[in-house]
Amino acid sequence: MEGYQNILIVGELDDNGVSATTAQVLRVGRTLAEETGQQVHLLFLGGEMQAAAEKGYAYGADKVFMAADPQLENYTTDSYLQVMAAFVEEMKPAVILFSHNETGLDLAPRLAFRIRSGVTLDCVAYRMEKESGRLQQERPVFGGKAHASYQSPNEGPQISTVREGAVEPADCDETRTGEVAGFPVVLDPAAIRTRFVRKEKDESQAQVLKLATANSVVCGGRGLGKKEGVDLLVETAELLDGAIAGSRPTIDQGWLPGPLQIGQTGKKVSPKLYMAVGISGALQHMAGCANANTIVSINTDPEAPIFKMSHIGVVGDYKGVLAGFNEELKKTRG
After folding, report:
1. What is the CATH number of the domain that holds 276?
2. Of the chain's two ends, which shows fewer C-beta atoms within 10 Å, N or C?
3. Are 33 and 134 contained in the same domain?
């Protein structure tokens, strides 16, 4: 694609600096850049967070940009879209990658429409064709039963969102440093149709952030029987230094917050250990955890479909199984 070059990552910052999901997208961008001999450009939009933005170099960015303005401190579609369109027009990236989260899911399609480009959402794998320079994007379809490959026919930037947990976060190399380049922000107030009112703290967000990067996830399903069963999951997760989560029935019952749902319509995770407690194993749920290194399932039904997709299966009442497991963990860890 003549005139377009480099990989643009639209990053996000949190209290810890570069967000975990941004670190995952940076790994994808770094791999594509090395395949094509291009650079990784990282763009942050927000308030003044210069020091935090500099950490982008440690995660593999070749250039880090910051579009800082008080009106960008909190996300609104119209303000972010104006800045993104202006940045793309000036820098002409060949590929634009977002995290597949609330912001990316809202902003990526709108940007694609604004600049008359294509967009592919919720992708798990990428490959750059050397001859054409076009990006092959792979995403799960039919509830995770198959993967489909997509390619944008447009001459402009190729836009995509990367599924959370699809890849490991980029390695952090503290020796890589650099200066953050400012990008001038010019906003048309008449084009901003919404305004930020207030921010309310959601106590479950700390659990959500941990879920995105946890090496161990303990997930409960309908088989817990009642809300009090979550307490045992929490104990197990704490002993494993992991995160808790729930299947759709668990969320619908109100036993766990909605953002902790695993499955086709929830979060997708790929921990080293995934413990499925009282979960039957419907395909809609397995679409969210199929990439886990090891799946351990506990269910009273020996014919539960999840056993066919598990590396280790235990038939029995979860309360007794987890209680014994927790006691052994306590002994092992002193």
Report:
1. 3.40.50.1220
2. C
3. yes
Same domain, 105 and 171: yes
Instruction: Collapse the DSSP code of 300 into the 3-class scheme (helix H, G, I; strand E, B; otherwise coil) and give the result.
Output: coil
- Supply the pTM of this predicted model: 0.77
Rounded to whole angstroms, the Cα distance separating 194 from 169 reads 33
Q: Per-residue pLDDT tens for 270-320? A: 899 999 999 999 988 998 898 899 999 999 999 999 999 999 999 999 999
User: Dmax over Cα atoms in the chain, in whole Å?
Assistant: 64
Q: Are residues 125 and 216 in the same domain?
A: no
Q: Using CA atoms of 159, 164, 167, 172 in order, give the dihedral in degrees to the nearest 10.
A: 90
Lowest-confidence region among 86-95, 113-122, 149-158, 320-329: 149-158
Distance (Å, whole) CA 215 – CA 232: 19
- Assigned domain for 168 exists: yes
* One domain, residues 158 and 269: no
